[in-house]
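To whoever is on call:

I kicked off a structure prediction for a single chain this morning and the downstream step that reads the tokens threw a length-mismatch warning. I double-checked the sequence; it's 267 residues and nothing unusual in it as far as I can see. Pasting both halves so you can look.
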Amino acid sequence: MKIGIVGCGGRMGRMLVKQVTQTAGCHVAGGTEPAVSPFLGKDIGTLAGVEALNVTVADSAEKLFQTCDAIIDFTTPAATVEHASLAAKFGKIHVIGTTGISNEDQQIIAQNGSRATIVQGANMSLGVNLLAQLTKKVAAILDDEFDIEIVEMHHRHKVDAPSGTALQLGKAAAEGRGVDHDTVADRGRDGITGPRKAGDIGYAVLRGGNVVGDHTVMFAAEDEIIEITHKAGDRSIFARGAVKAALWASDKPAGYYSMMDVLGLDD
């Protein structure tokens, strides 16, 4: 499989390049960066710290989608929406790990699944997706005497909050309880907020250092707390999941898929 990496010069982009070179059945066929990037023209392999691949960084996402079988995308919401349209235009596989996407943009991305094979995950790791399934099941069992709180911590450079993974977990909890997530989500507290509203799903966000990603779902009742936690030690777990998703999608028809589909974790 010919895999292209948009944003190949970033931290995650370089990790993806490394992972593709270490995975049987695929190779890096191209990569892009914005037109102002200092990485343009550099060898993608050398940039990622692996052997030279004789493939240079370019600035045309459209050409990348034309020439590759699958494109992996951990960029920005605005760029990802454009990339989803290119995937639909050329009928390609588009694996999306971008977070911070608005509901409106999310609808556009999903609609492009009518002509492209789109696999999207707020988090590409097996462990986090398993955590989401466990959260859904526990939330379905416990009533609202158990308050649900989601605590996440990431490195100081992360630009969106709560993290896409935290929101994924909150939505899994809401689904388990059969409630609308956006109605019950409490995404920030400050000042005199009054007592906690029963049934809300709360979020707490921490930023600092170089933490890759820690997430804990807490079910807190009188005299007992249940906690489910996932800690990411290295970004390679996200890269492995994304490449796995691209290979999984190789024989799938056009459609909109999730990492739950890739990992076989759907009910």
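Update from on-call: the warning came from a stale cache, not from the record. Cleared it. Sanity check on the structure: Residues 126-141 form the longest helix (16 residues).
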